[in-house]
Design goal:
This protein is mainly alpha-helical. It folds into two domains: 97 residues, Winged helix-like DNA-binding domain superfamily/Winged helix DNA-binding domain (Arc Repressor Mutant, subunit A); 52 residues, no CATH class. It contains eight helices and two strands, in the order ααααββαααα. A two-stranded antiparallel ribbon has the order 1-2.
Length: 193
């Protein structure tokens, strides 16, 4: 851990359930809320240290960092890679382009596709922000072993795959399975008519 860093108020660790034993529903809901809390806490350094000084929104930051990592990509790929919906990606891309941080160029092989790449200004910002992301990651995983970090990464990938799974018609299994009971019943009635 970094010099001068003091961590306090640790929650006591809980023994994990034995492998293969499903957690009770209440524990799963509590874990879901802990994941949401984790996501909110991860945004704090961005909001506190980066958003204002660099005049960049969270979604713009995520798009800029992904384009910087890939070198060149398309908007629909950004949506897939980041999990951000297409409309929010489109807004972030438009703002990044307007602010001179990315260049949008046509793909000669596919007229509907537009390539996104960093401009020199965008690349300079990427190089400024990349160490900040590394610092957040280092702090986040500082209390985990390499094995625990790898296991966590594997579990996160499995959870993402579960959330991204689709049925034969391309519908999100997650969204279909989590519809409010009223909405699901109305759709079933509509299908039987």
């Amino acid at each position: 851990m970094g010099e001068g860093v003091v961590k306090v108020n640790r929650a006591p660790s809980r023994d994990a359930e034995p492998a293969g034993v499903p957690a009770p529903a209440a524990d799963r809901v509590a874990t879901l809320h802990q994941l949401l809390k984790l996501a909110n806490r991860l945004i704090a350094p961005f909001s506190t240290h980066l958003a204002g000084p660099h005049r960049i929104s969270l979604n713009e930051f995520r798009m800029l960092m992904t384009i910087g990592l890939l070198g060149r990509t398309a908007s629909h790929e950004l949506a897939e890679l980041t999990g951000v919906n297409a409309m929010s990606v489109s807004r972030a891309v438009a703002t990044l382009e307007k602010n001179g941080r990315i260049a949008v160029s046509p793909d000669p092989a596919n007229r509907r596709r537009k390539w996104l790449s960093l401009t020199p200004q965008g690349d300079a910002l990427y190089r400024t922000l990349r160490p900040e992301s590394q610092r957040v990651a280092a702090f986040l995983f500082s209390d985990l072993t390499e094995q625990e970090t790898a296991l966590f990464g594997t579990m996160v990938n499995r959870l993402i795959a579960t959330l991204e799974a689709t049925d034969e018609a391309g519908r999100s299994l997650f969204l279909e399975s989590t519809k409010p009971a009223r909405e699901a019943a109305a759709e079933q009635q509509k299908d039987h008519q």
